Amino acid sequence: MNGLRVERTSLQHFDWVLAGLVVVLAVMGLVNLVSAAASGVEGGSDIVGRQTTAMALAAFVIAVVVLIDYRHYDRFAYVLYGGTIGLLLLTLAVAEETRGARAWLFSGRFQPSEVAKIGMILALARWFGRNPPASIRRLRDLFVPGVIVAIPVALIIAQKDLGVAVLTLLIGLTLLPLVNVPLRAWLGIAALGAAGLVVLWTYGLKPYQQERILGFLDPSRDPLASGYQQTQSKIAVGSGGLFGTGWQEGTQTQLRFLPTQHTDFAFSVLAEEWGFVGSVAVLAVYAALLFWGLLIARNSKDGFGAVLAIGLVGMLLWPATINVAMVLGLAPVIGVPLPLFSYGGSALLSTAIAIGLLLNVSMRRYVF
Questions:
Q1: Range of the domain at 19
Q2: Is the pLDDT score of 266 beyond 60?
Q3: N or C: which end of the chain has fewer CB within 10 A?
């Protein structure tokens, strides 16, 4: 009876603001997808239906995650982390190579690296919940969280999915601004990192990955190959002007100059059809969502909940930032979808889990 009373109290404090922001973004994304699919992209007649089904499944996942008190996730954080690492190892062992990477299971329907990000955040939240970031003053004190981040990043690199590896690393680094490690230590790390990038470029990157980066630096060097999507994306964004061309009226979209306009370049469709005003409106909703997530972290009553919320905000912040920068030509094309906006099942599933956990922490701040 006491547990039932606690759950009833939690549901009374359901975070309608967070839920509303998520629904607004999801609906905007679906409207945008309808326009992208109308251009006749491959499988366009089924894309909207599949995404609608995925959204319904995502809503179910959110409900399940919310119902389980997040403190149970604290107890099993390392077990869940180990499970996601196991999935990454299984992917390396049995997955077929698709678009140069071995990152998908079940014939391209499931990408384990997406849920691995959740497992990493849970493990980091458990560790930092018992070792508050503000109490960490030496680099060697970050050895354990460094290992927690390094294992999935290394396995994703081994899958040849560099874009997701970079994204996972950035999510893992989200908590670093909270620690009190001296600046000179970070400068040393930066120097080592620069040397590591040289080694990675020389020995780690495949020619097509190097070409993507070179194409980003100078799209005109190969406008019909590595620089094609970014060049066409910038044309689409620029042609939108202040108020856009109108829904399903964008020439870049409807004439299919962007092959991945329903996935990685969904924001290009938005910018062309709704213009600067529409783009800013959508980005404002994202900013409100991220700001609200930080408020949830601040109001959390325990260390695990606070760190978990910050990590989840990072999981939403980094892909949104990279995707928009990629569309505008400010970052390399590394295949990062826009959360709640781009077409895709695995990314939507991991985002749903993140939203569910944020709702969970927010609802139970009154229980303690």
A1: 2-366
A2: yes
A3: N
User: Does residue 191 contact residue 185 with C-beta atoms inside 8 Å?
Assistant: no
pLDDT digits over 156-196, tens only?
A: 988 888 788 888 999 988 888 877 777 777 777 778 778 87
Within 8 A by CB and 6+ apart from 360, the residues are 65, 66, 68, 69, 70
244 sits in the region (left: phi over 0; alpha: psi -120 to 50; else beta) called left
Q: What is the pLDDT of residue 288?
A: 95
Closest-CA residue to 128 (of 139, 115, 141): 141
Residue 357 identity (one-letter amino acid): L
CB of 308 within 8 A of CB of 232? no
Amino acid at 221: R
Give the predicted TM-score (pTM) of the model. 0.85
Mean pLDDT score, 17-23: 93
Give me the number of domains the chain comprises: 1
